[in-house]
Design a protein that fits this description.
CATH architecture of the largest domain: 2-Layer Sandwich
Largest sheet: 5 strands, antiparallel
Order of helices and strands: EHEHEEEHHHHHHEEHEEEEEHHH
Structural class: alpha+beta
Length: about 325
């Protein structure tokens, strides 16, 4: 499948990029690594007049210590840079695990951390060729009035399948968004609006410039799990990340449980977290928290796996992540 005709702009500075973006915001799309945008353009899912290649912007691929005891990861940092960074390995091993699970190592050199976070939602009825889609009526995501995944559905049910967002949210990460009005920093959890048509709150004239993660205290443990059909290349059918903080007596003082690939955005289960906090968790408590989690998810038939299977996987992932983080049963 051939790429459609488009013009490309390769700015050298962030200001230049923001100027181009504000001048062409209706018919322009941002490209970082291009591992998501280019396939979408080949399928006819994206047809911009102009592509803004932000990978040419200098100083947006740095990983270093930041203000207020945080680590800053530039938006253009490749997944290879992230997984190889000594400062990331030392402070965020769960993030390294999540990066290693993405696609295949050969694509890590071109895929960027911002691209993974900002990727669009997917659906087996939408992410198909133009010829395949022409045989069906347009769905909500294609500006139509139906959902092929849910009979009589009244909204888009496409799934956000980014792997890094759940683990970053569990670590209380934030993102910096830049526009001509200035920069704003928001918690990553607030970046997502859980809308299948478009999953995040990035404005039409904004660029995500960096990811900021607080350096964890020694008593914080973070774990990540992912299930997919094949061990490489495939998107997740369920992911999960858990962070727990315990005191000297083993009592959990803080907990975050975040699931991915089960809805139009990452899902944090506050009710399940309350079950863990204030206890000295054992396997029974972890299983009770996992049961609470599955009450919050409502997957539909829009991926390669059945909704029932994905619910079972979500429960398994939460128990496994909690056990690994808390050292229960050797994490198994």
């Amino acid at each position: 499948m051939h790429l459609p005709h488009f013009e490309i702009t390769e700015p050298r500075t962030l200001d230049d990029a923001l100027l181009v973006l504000s001048d062409h915001e209706d018919r322009i799309m941002i490209k970082a690594g291009g591992t998501a945008l280019i396939p979408a353009m080949r399928l006819g899912l994206a047809n911009p007049d102009r592509v803004l290649n932000i990978s040419t912007i200098s100083d947006m691929d740095k990983i270093d210590r930041h203000r207020d005891n945080c680590i800053s990861i530039g938006a253009n940092s490749s997944l290879f840079q992230v997984r190889q960074s000594s400062i990331i390995k030392e402070n965020f091993p769960a993030l390294v695990d999540a990066v290693k699970s993405i696609s295949s190592p050969s694509l890590h050199h071109s895929s960027s951390i911002a691209g993974n976070i900002c990727q669009d939602c997917r659906c087996i009825y939408y992410n198909q060729s133009l010829t395949w889609r022409a045989l069906r009526s347009k769905c909500f995501k294609a500006a139509g009035k139906t959902c092929h995944a849910v009979s009589n559905g009244n909204k888009c049910s496409a799934v956000y399948r980014g792997d890094l967002a759940p683990v970053l949210i569990s670590m209380s990460a934030s993102v910096v968004l830049a526009s001509f009005k200035g920069k704003r920093e928001i918690p990553l959890s607030q970046f997502f609006k859980s809308n299948g048509i478009w999953p995040n709150t990035l404005g039409p004239a904004e660029i995500l410039t960096e990811v900021v993660i607080p350096i964890p205290k020694s008593n914080l443990k973070v774990t990540f799990e992912k299930v997919r059909i094949r061990s490489s290349l495939d998107y997740a059918i369920a992911t999960g990340a858990v962070s727990v903080t315990t005191d000297s007596e083993g009592t959990c003082t803080d907990c975050k449980i975040v699931l991915g690939a089960l809805g139009p955005g990452p899902i944090e289960s506050f009710e399940a977290e309350k079950i863990i906090v204030g206890t000295i968790p054992d396997l029974a408590i972890c299983k009770r928290a996992a049961k609470e989690v599955i009450n919050k998810i409502h997957p539909v038939a829009n991926t390669e796996s059945t909704p029932e299977h994905r619910i079972e996987l979500a429960e398994f992932i939460v128990v496994r992540c909690l056990c690994k983080a808390l050292g229960i049963g050797g994490g198994d």
